[in-house]
């Protein structure tokens, strides 16, 4: 990465533009917040010692309904024409300057299935997600005795970065930071995108971003807990800030997305989830993986048009974070099966019900579990975990029905599992007092395992086979004893 920094430094002189003469009152406030940010609940750093695109005009690709505003009301003043064409402008402050692009959407704007105004009502439902994710030092949820803060839409910051690399080490530079925030009183959702033209502008960009954290309780991201936030915190330290106080909490929807869709979608990439579950069709889009290459092209020849697709991609990602917030808030609110249709695939229906149960929505989860079993949906991977849940709840008869269905499916497969047969053997032996039926299931379990492992047997499989043979021997002795008593 040292070569990258050298290259960026050499291009600094070619990339620098005339600084804006005045900053807006909002920018001055941001600088002050960066210096003295306490916010409502957050102070984490201080200084050391259905998307429709518009293909016309210079802002091609921006979603319809957005209004772009600038620092002084005039776009691109004093900038290279290729930058001005992107609706960006220079922001100057105590630490230097950087470029900012701002798009303002009305809360009535629809992004896929959801309208942004639903953020106001759905945000408060996300508290269980935050409570599970924020179990680390320095966050409000770290101490289990502390009740997590209520979540309000106006105190969320929707965050997505574009970086020069993939790691979270010090050599990875965030060259673009995008974030969004809702203002219920103004009826707007604002997306801001900060860009640096060389490493010397990074400190000014970070100072501005730090000011935006005033009053923020949670960051809304997609893999931000593991990537975006660690990258930013390392850059804060490298640029002269040190951790101080409580960090914002996290609402990282990658984890929830995987919980619901990892077995039913080809991948849990944000673009896949947008199209298959959120009703968002991007059309032409620059993959995030190409962003570093396009940024290097811009640095090499000074042509900012290379970055047009990066801006559009980043802006849409932030809007999609808002749609995910509405989706998961609605699921926790119990809209599935009421206002919204239930998932069509039984595997996804089970995963959603299990996710709800894990996040305190047991009442809504039970409704989904009941729909799953009542409809007699075709079995799959969901049968065994659903039966295990019923067993834990003491509902053994219902669990046995699912084991029966799983056992029938297993016997028709080339590589069968014997788990359902073993569970049924234990059920009939210990709960139904039917050793003959229990022995039959144990025998069938042994046959399935032998069929599966006819060529090679690991130590684990040999242990399973020995356990089944031991069970069969015990059941045979029990049946003989019953016969003698009879």
UniProtKB/TrEMBL annotation:
Residues 1-12 have a biased composition (Basic and acidic residues). Residues 157-327 form the YprB ribonuclease H-like domain. InterPro entries: RNaseH-like_sf (IPR012337), YprB_RNase_H-like_dom (IPR038720). SUPFAM superfamilies: Ribonuclease H-like. Transmembrane segments: none annotated. Residues 1-42 are annotated as: Disordered. This is Ribonuclease H-like domain-containing protein. It comes from Cohnella hashimotonis. The lineage of its organism: Bacteria, Bacillati, Bacillota, Bacilli, Bacillales.
């Amino acid at each position: 990465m040292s070569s990258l920094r050298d290259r960026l430094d050499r291009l600094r002189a070619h990339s620098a533009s005339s600084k804006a003469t005045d900053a807006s009152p909002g920018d001055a406030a941001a600088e002050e917040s960066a210096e003295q940010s306490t916010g409502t609940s957050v102070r984490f750093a201080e200084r050391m010692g259905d998307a429709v695109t518009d293909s016309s005009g210079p802002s091609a690709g921006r979603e319809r309904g957005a209004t772009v505003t600038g620092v002084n009301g005039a776009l691109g003043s004093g900038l290279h024409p290729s930058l001005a064409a992107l609706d960006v402008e220079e922001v100057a402050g105590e630490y230097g300057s950087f470029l900012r692009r701002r798009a303002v959407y009305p809360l009535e704007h629809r992004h896929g299935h959801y309208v942004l105004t639903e953020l106001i009502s759905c945000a408060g439902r996300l508290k269980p997600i935050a409570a599970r994710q924020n179990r680390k030092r320095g966050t409000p949820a770290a101490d289990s005795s502390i009740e997590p803060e209520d979540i309000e839409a106006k105190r969320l910051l929707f965050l997505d970065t574009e970086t020069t690399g993939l790691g979270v080490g010090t050599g990875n530079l965030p060259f673009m930071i995008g974030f969004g925030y809702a203002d219920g009183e103004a009826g707007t959702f604002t997306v801001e995108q900060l860009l640096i033209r060389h490493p010397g502008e990074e400190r000014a960009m970070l100072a501005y971003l730090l000011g935006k954290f005033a009053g923020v309780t949670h960051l809304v991201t997609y893999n931000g807990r593991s990537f975006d936030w660690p990258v930013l915190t390392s850059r804060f330290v490298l640029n002269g800030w040190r951790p101080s106080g409580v960090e914002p909490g996290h609402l990282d929807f990658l984890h929830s997305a995987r919980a619901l869709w990892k077995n039913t979608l080809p991948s849990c990439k944000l673009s896949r989830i947008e199209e298959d579950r959120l009703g968002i069709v991007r059309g032409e889009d620059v993959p995030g993986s190409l962003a570093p290459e396009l940024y290097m092209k811009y640095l090499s020849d000074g042509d900012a048009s290379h970055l047009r697709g990066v801006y559009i991609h980043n802006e849409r990602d932030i809007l999609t974070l808002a749609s995910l917030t509405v989706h998961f808030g609605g699921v926790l609110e119990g809209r599935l099966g009421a206002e919204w249709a239930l998932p069509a695939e039984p595997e996804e229906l089970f995963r959603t019900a299990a996710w709800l149960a894990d996040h305190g929505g047991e009442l809504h989860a039970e409704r989904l579990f009941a729909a799953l079993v009542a409809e007699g949906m075709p079995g799959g991977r969901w049968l065994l975990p659903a039966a295990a849940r019923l067993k834990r709840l003491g509902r053994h008869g219902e669990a046995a029905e699912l084991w029966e269905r799983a056992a029938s499916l297993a016997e028709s497969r080339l590589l069968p599992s014997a788990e359902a047969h073993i569970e049924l053997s234990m059920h009939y032996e210990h709960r139904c007092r039917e050793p003959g039926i229990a022995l039959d299931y144990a025998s069938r379990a042994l046959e399935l395992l032998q069929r599966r492992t006819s060529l090679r047997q690991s130590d684990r499989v040999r242990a399973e086979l020995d356990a089944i043979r031991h069970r069969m021997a015990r059941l045979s002795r029990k049946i003989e004893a019953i016969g003698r008593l009879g």
